[in-house]
Design brief:
Bound molecules: inosinic acid
Largest sheet: 6 strands, mixed
Shape: globular
Order of helices and strands: EHEHEEEHEEEHH
Strand content: 15-25%
Number of strands: 8
CATH topology: Maf protein
Helix content: 25-40%
Length: 206
């Protein structure tokens, strides 16, 4: 059984404002006060892990052990079957250009790699790892996913990252075309979050 979270305050070990707001929103119903890692001046460790969970764990542990409070961190990305799981944990890095991150560029890169394998399946999944760490070094981790296929050309302007090329299984709209609430109800992040709640916030479900 997962360790239950029984504090009032939780650090969100992310320096991304969008993620902080999203996680704070998801946790208000459990009476948890979230504090961003930035607010506490916590350093952002290098993501040296080889899996989504390893990266989420190292980020959560770095904050929890430095600040002496439980900390939650996530790591996510797109895994394409025909590319042996790439871009995977390097999803953000595939978007890196001399002028910053450019996801149109990253989506073109994925499409070009797929085109080099003409008979390749276009199946892919978004994966999200969430890790909750305590100052004593204990960690609970959960991995959520959503399966789909990659479309080309890109479709839709909603969402972020690789959303315009991701068609979830059984749907006709890409994540880029879907309304945010519809995406959030079925996303890899929602799946991971549900598992985290079932494991570590089970006694607070109202
Ligand atoms: P990180 O989890 O902040 O390291 O970033 C993971 C990268 O994966 C993001 O920059 C996006 O490119 C991609 N990614 C993760 N989740 C999603 C999603 O829901 N839609 C589109 N792209 C995503």
């Amino acid at each position: 059984m997962a360790r239950l979270f029984n504090d009032e305050k939780l650090i969100v070990a992310s320096h991304n404002k969008g993620k902080l707001v999203e996680i704070a929103d998801l946790l208000t119903r459990f009476d948890v006060e979230t504090i961003g890692a930035d607010e506490l001046g916590l350093p952002e460790p290098e993501e040296t892990g080889e899996t989504f969970i390893a990266n989420a764990e190292l980020k959560a542990l770095a904050s929890a052990t430095t600040a002496g409070l439980p900390a939650l961190a996530d790591d996510s990305g797109l895994a394409v079957d025909a590319l042996d799981g790439a871009p995977g944990i390097y999803s953000a890095r595939w978007a890196q250009t001399a002028n910053g991150r450019d996801f149109d560029f990253a989506m073109h890169k994925v499409e070009m790699a797929l085109n080099r394998k003409p008979d390749a399946l276009r199946t892919a999944r978004f994966i999200c790892a969430l890790s909750l760490a305590w100052p004593d070094g204990h960690v609970e981790s959960f991995e959520g996913k959503v399966d789909g296929t990659l479309v080309w050309p890109m479709r839709g302007k909603n969402g972020f990252g690789y959303d315009p090329v991701f068609l979830p299984e059984g749907g006709d709209l890409t994540f880029g075309e879907m309304q945010p609430a519809a995406k959030h109800a079925m996303s890899h992040r929602a799946d991971a979050f549900e598992q985290l709640v079932g494991g570590c916030f089970a006694d607070r479900i109202k």
